[in-house]
Amino acid sequence: MKVLITGVAGFIGSHLADTLLGMGHTIYGIDDFDPFYPKEIKLKNIAGAAAHPNFHFFEFDITEKNNWDILGKEKFDLIYHLAAKAGVRPSIEQPLSYLYTNVEGTLNLLEYMRSTGDTKLVFASSSSIYGNCKTIPFSESALTDEPISPYAFSKKSCELLNYNYHHLYNIDIINLRFFTVYGPRQRPDLAIHKFMNRISAGQPIEIYGDGTTARDYTYIEDIVSGVIKAGDYLAGHKNVFEIVNLGNNAPVMLMDMVDTFKKVLNTDFATVRKPMQDGDVDITYADISKAHRLFGYQPQTSFEDGLARFVAWHQAEHAGTAAI
Ligand SMILES: NC(=O)c1ccc[n+]([C@@H]2O[C@H](COP(=O)([O-])OP(=O)(O)OC[C@H]3O[C@@H](n4cnc5c(N)ncnc54)[C@H](O)[C@@H]3O)[C@@H](O)[C@H]2O)c1
């Protein structure tokens, strides 16, 4: 298949590209190396893919409509739209840039699809849409009208926009709500990666709140397998519009994450307490029965195993510089 991945140089996009290339697909990838974190990291993310003859990379900003002409009206069997400004806390500082990239960028992609007649889209949505939903685990049928950050608002807006284009132009779409993804190449702004950087540097790690907040951490390989299964489902079905959780269905409390770090690293380290931050939710917890029913999604990786694999990657990346 000929597949387009936006945000291909990012954490999830680069893993998706590697896996799809390994399966024999041809990948067209877009990324503008958004400065949210360093370009060098993103170039490293796609170093393996870039060496593959079936990988075609296009560096451009998806928010500029004219930039899409670079693709020359190329048609795709399947499109995975992952390019976005990610992260809850920075969205509170820069709401407008989140709206531009996430909503306007998505609109430009949908318009591109309309112009080429492409009809199959998997969209990277987010568990943050559930806000402080009181009913756990979070089900796709829950009310999501109370986003508590501009990032959550932008992703919810994209889901609504996607429905609009599904209705008007028969574009088949699956919105996948990812639950905190972790593993090798994880974004450096995310908790596990930040913690590991601090532990390696011999600094105390910061605990926001009383340690009872929980996240449904989902290992990157499980996410990529779910994303590909969603794509396969789209390819084999007509008139599809779905919203589907991709999580682990096993939330981990912050204090348990700290203990798991200690176990995996076989060491102790200091922690400092900080107040809860605006935009942070108390818990994320995915009901994954719909993903299982629709396309057989079943995460395989326990938190301890996944964390051990992340730690091994981090130590290899920082070999010679780590304090432990
Ligand atoms: N990582 C998670 O835990 C998580 C959770 C929920 C949802 N998501 C969503 O999954 C997707 C991928 O997340 P990630 O963690 O890999 O993030 P990432 O930041 O590593 O990847 C996103 C990529 O998009 C690119 N990009 C940003 N703005 C762009 C623009 N205007 N034009 C072209 N490219 C642009 C960035 O350069 C980056 O490489 C995002 O849409 C994110 O919102 C991620």
Question: How would you describe what is shown here?
Answer:
- By secondary structure, the protein is α/β, with parallel strands linked by helices.
- It has a single domain, classed as Rossmann fold (3-Layer(aba) Sandwich), CATH 3.40.50.
- It is 41% helix and 17% strand.
- The protein contains 11 helices and 13 strands.
- It has helices at 11-22, 39-45, 47-50, 88-93, 95-116, 150-169, 191-200, 220-236, 254-265, 289-295, 303-317; strands spanning 2-6, 26-31, 55-59, 78-81, 120-126, 172-178, 181-182, 205-208, 214-215, 218-219, 241-246, 252-253, 271-274.
- A 7-stranded parallel β-sheet has the order 3-2-1-4-5-6-11, with helices on both faces. A two-stranded parallel sheet has the order 7-10.
- It is globular, with a radius of gyration of 19 Å.
- The model has no long low-confidence stretch (mean pLDDT 96).
- Nicotinamide-adenine-dinucleotide binds at residues 7, 9-13, 30-34, 36, 42, 61-63, 82-86, 101, 105, 124, 126, 178, 180-181, 187.
Helix count?
11
Provide the spatial order of strands within the biggest beta sheet.
Answer: 3-2-1-4-5-6-11
Shape: globular
Separation of the first and last Cα atoms = 44 Å
Fraction of residues in β-strands: 15-25%
Largest sheet: 7 strands, parallel
Please give the CATH architecture: 3-Layer(aba) Sandwich
- Indicate the low-confidence ranges by residue numbers: none
Overall pLDDT score? 96
Give, in order, the helices and strands: EHEHHEEHHEHEEHEEEHEEHEHH
**Remind me, CATH topology?**
Rossmann fold
Instruction: Name the ligand types.
Output: nicotinamide-adenine-dinucleotide
CATH class bucket: Alpha Beta
- Protein structure class: alpha/beta
Please count the beta strands (DSSP E, at least 2 residues each): 13
Helix content: 40-55%
